[in-house]
Amino acid sequence: MKCAAPLLALALLAPAPAVAHPHVFVQAGVDIVFDRKGRLSHIKVTWGYDAFYSLLIAEDQGLDQDGDGALTAREEAKLSGFDAKWAPGFNGDLVATLEGQPLKLSGPLKPTATMVDGQIISTHVREVSGAPFVGSDTLSVQAYDESYYTSYDLTLPVRLIGNGQCSIRRIEPDIDGELAQMQAMLLSIDADADLEEMDIPLIGGAFATEILVSCPSS
Fold it and tell me: DSSP secondary-structure letter at 14?
């Protein structure tokens, strides 16, 4: 995730390897929010950082000095938004499409952050441009970093807010199959090849869980 927090920025300034492996592990969750007219209005995103990365952020921000794994109200206020200062063009590691067409999402709104048992958990809200009706069309939501520097695991709640008639279907990635394809690709590369000059595909999306939402037509 590309933001202005010092540790994040330093990590992301480094050149990504041609074939990446994750350095940051995030538990993710999404709330898919409908307005009173039944239109898709917002997507709320939750990120729960791995214990080691949480420790790095806490030390960088000078938080949790007593080491109890929790933050004071003042510390939470200081931390909130640390991962919501995004570089121009960053998509927030969230891809949403409606019937295959990309949805335009705002930057992060209403950021929060806290710490639970030493794990930093943050939230932010993305406004959906145009507030479309989903109807029988299929809404697809995925959380991933295409470079795979950050690994997102959609293990936190995925919820529909404001429209109880819609249904969710979850499609898990074929991790073994994708790894086999990657291994075959790597074995086909000449040992003396310059990987930086090769068109190695970005792999993050291949390891992403897909959330599919459909709603009955009015």
Answer: S
